[in-house]
Amino acid sequence: MDRTMTSPLPLATLSQLDRADFVAAVGAVFEHTPWVMARVWERRPFVDRAALRVAMQAVLAEAARAEMLALILAHPELASKAALRGELTVDSAREQAGAGLDACSPEELTEIRRLNDAYRARFGWPFIVAVRGLSRQDIIAAMRCRLQRSDDEEFAEARAQILRIAELRLDPLLAA
User: Fold this and answer.
1) How much is the pTM?
2) Is residue 17's pLDDT more than 90?
3) Alpha helices (H) along the chain
4) Could you say which of 39, 75, 136, 169 is catalytic?
5) Scanning 16, 121, 136, 159, which has the fewest C-beta atoms within 10 Å of its C-beta?
6) What values do phi and psi take at 132, rounded to 5?
7) Which burial class, exposed, middle or buried, applies to 73 when counting CB atoms under 10 A from its CB (0-12, 13-18, 19+)?
8) How many Cβ atoms sit within 10 Å of the Cβ of residue 137?
9) Has 32 been annotated as catalytic?
10) What are the residues facing 109 on neighbouring strands?
11) What residues pair up with 174 in beta bridges, in sequence order?
């Protein structure tokens, strides 16, 4: 199946695809981690978007900690040097630009990078947040706040944010 086309798929059609076509169609909603949607496929058919979301949530909840850590580590840091070099996925670049992270002032960029470094040093993975609807200041405030949490709290928060990001990426791929 060629997912370079831009027409959204009806959920019933998505549910009828074989595993390879399903993953080709929606596997990229989880950053560099198509195994998630390959496991979601096993929970077909999806009677509605809520059922698809529940399946995605269940797959993440059932994933081994090492698998979840690999998924977390697949995400780029916000306003990173990789972003400036244009090395992000199309989705990540669009999301970060939508939050204005491509237009940071030098002071904001310095602060975000400092917080990224502190977060990675504290937890061992990048700070992850679904940036849609957030301003640069909202993101900086969230980074400061979340640095105060425990490892377990942040691991759970990273999983929740990844699910939210995937849902936002999946939405335009599905027909109404």
Assistant:
1) 0.91
2) yes
3) 11-16, 19-26, 35-41, 49-62, 65-73, 81-84, 90-98, 106-123, 136-146, 151-170
4) 75
5) 121
6) -55, 130
7) middle
8) 11
9) no
10) none
11) 9
